[in-house]
Design brief:
alpha/beta; Aminopeptidase; seven-stranded mixed beta sheet; two-stranded antiparallel sheet; 12 helices; globular
Length: 366
Amino acid sequence: MLKSSNSTTTFINFLISLTILIIATFLIAVFISFNSTFSSAYIKSVLNKVNMQSVLIEMLRSEAHAIPPSEDLPPLTELSLDLMINIKPKDVRTLLGKEIPGLALYHTEIAVAGQGTNIANLPIESPPPKFELLEETDENKQDAQDKSAPKPDIKNKAVFIYHSHSWEAFKPLLKDQKQNSSNNEKMNVLIVGDKLKQELETKGIGVEHSSKNVTKELKSRNWNYYQSYSLSRETVQEAMANHQKLKFFIDIHRDSQPKKVTTADIHQKKYAKLFFVVGKEHKNYEKNRTFAEKLHHDLEKKYPGLSRGVVVKGEFDGDGVYNQDLTEHALLIEFGGVDNDLTELYNSAEALADVFSEYYWGKSEI
């Protein structure tokens, strides 16, 4: 009988030891595989789901069982999975996001949703262009007419406008509308940057605008599409060194969503909608996010429907930084979509300059 009891105890101890070993191995593997998940911003985003009042209620319930349970406190298992391995049991995207092509795009967090914004119409990145064809197709483009007269140069530069993907073009400006990329600065996002520069300068804000042909520069270095943010980082750092008073940095892109998603009708005028993108893999993340959200809300007050909102991207669904670690006032703006025309783009540039100038000169409500 004693021998049987000892065997049972030994077997139980073995099972306990094996269980501890399996759990320890699992936790080590999780930490090694997902150590990038444990950024302060990510941990804060998870803990923000916990209502501290609900926690207090649960603590009181442990002594006074008559107190009804809180419905706002997420289950411990759900919170642990989210914090440890970024799996949310109620969100299938976290389980299959890396297995189903394209689904990883929907890891993007909607920080602030504009009118009509949801997970189905988030910004879509254009496929990498065939750089070797861009120079050839430029010969077939028609010139766009710039309606704005040149503005006088302002000595002190406060805003830097640049384009990490300068080839992103707008179909209504292209002769061959099967294309969506061009190195012609009258057809691509550079024309938007130039218009925004002019509008800001009329409001007394000095602007430096980079018209760098990113395609040409990447080719000269034998770099590929995925190194475009490394190149634009150099552009920003150079601008910061040359203009000590630069404070605001705006990277202008254009979305690939269709016109029905990227166009707004406000006060009987057509506008190309704006979408603010914030990278969260750096220490300035929260300050840049606050800045983007402030502009979004200010735009909503004066031009309701113009801003599609603010999205936050990590390393798993984008660059994750977008050069925004260099400053506390950095923006990446999806300016309209591939189908927006020049009038819509110019109207939006004027509206953004209007709202931004109020923020800049301290007229915006805090």
